[in-house]
Amino acid sequence: MHFALPPRKTSQPPPYLPRASRLPGLRRSRLKVIALAGLFFLTLIYLVSRPSRSRNAVPTPRVPKGNPPVVLVTVLDETKYSKAYLETVKENRMQYAEKHGYQTLLAKVGDYDLAGAPGSWTTVVAMRDALTKFPDCHYVWHLDASGFVMNPKLKIEEHIMKAAKLDELMKKDVPVVPPDSIIKTFSHLKGQDVDLVLTQDKEGLSAGSLIVRNGEWARFFLETWFGPLYRSYNFQKAEAHALEHIVQWHPTILSRMAIIDQRVINAYGKGGKEEEYKDGDLVIRFPECTAAGAQSCETQSQVFVQAWRRVFAST
């Protein structure tokens, strides 16, 4: 009887076949969830434990270096003033700026796109342009073309904008628009917190001579003033009445504004005791002067032009 022999083992092993995973699909999903949860908690721990200064960091505002200390801005309107008169205005601004290391921005009506607003709005855009062209200046001083700098010895940063000086000059708890505005200047405002300085006359706030401190607030103020709503609104005195409006209805602006005596930066050629120019004042203005005739700016200012030229030449 013959028995079947078992198959012989080959000397060549069969090809390798990978073993099937021992982890079922459900178990793999659970591991992924656990891994993601762990990553989440590690991230959370990092966010909670990192230094508070990093979490609450706020971009540091850019601090102007004061180069130049002041930019003197004047808008030249050739439809309102004669060319000879405007040449005198430019001479005055440039000589005063040169004495103190200031810069000037002498803009013309038509230099900027006012989006259909009257040409007098050039004032606001020119001040904004000054901040762009001179980002390191400390102050922008707008002086209307109806006036002249008369005392070259006085510096804006010392005569007006020094904190201690502003504490002496600013009028507190007075109606913003005289005589009976219910909105009044802040009684607790300190000179170091003032970013806008201007004066009043018998008509209200005067934008003919005002100073803005360079910074984020100044940009906010000028953007607000030049807002499309105010440009399109039919204010009787355009940007001047728009200024009165935003000052009274925007506490953010009122809280940074100081009103000072008119003669400090805005004396008039004619007026009452508190507003009429006296020798030694910084500025004289002729806000009601005309383009021609007996009341022209050129005629009214002639004596004072001769005076400032003598004074400038002697200093």
Automatic annotation (TrEMBL):
<dbReference type="GO" id="GO:0000136">
    <property type="term" value="C:mannan polymerase complex"/>
</dbReference>
<feature type="transmembrane region" description="Helical">
    <location>
        <begin position="31"/>
        <end position="49"/>
    </location>
</feature>
<dbReference type="InterPro" id="IPR029044">
    <property type="entry name" value="Nucleotide-diphossugar_trans"/>
</dbReference>
<dbReference type="GO" id="GO:0006487">
    <property type="term" value="P:protein N-linked glycosylation"/>
</dbReference>
<feature type="region of interest" description="Disordered">
    <location>
        <begin position="1"/>
        <end position="21"/>
    </location>
</feature>
<keyword id="KW-0812">Transmembrane</keyword>
<keyword id="KW-0808">Transferase</keyword>
<comment type="similarity">
    <text>Belongs to the glycosyltransferase 34 family.</text>
</comment>
<keyword id="KW-1133">Transmembrane helix</keyword>
<dbReference type="InterPro" id="IPR008630">
    <property type="entry name" value="Glyco_trans_34"/>
</dbReference>
<dbReference type="Pfam" id="PF05637">
    <property type="entry name" value="Glyco_transf_34"/>
</dbReference>
<protein>
    <submittedName>
        <fullName>Galactosyl transferase GMA12/MNN10 family-domain-containing protein</fullName>
    </submittedName>
</protein>
<keyword id="KW-0472">Membrane</keyword>
<keyword id="KW-0328">Glycosyltransferase</keyword>
<dbReference type="GO" id="GO:0000009">
    <property type="term" value="F:alpha-1,6-mannosyltransferase activity"/>
</dbReference>
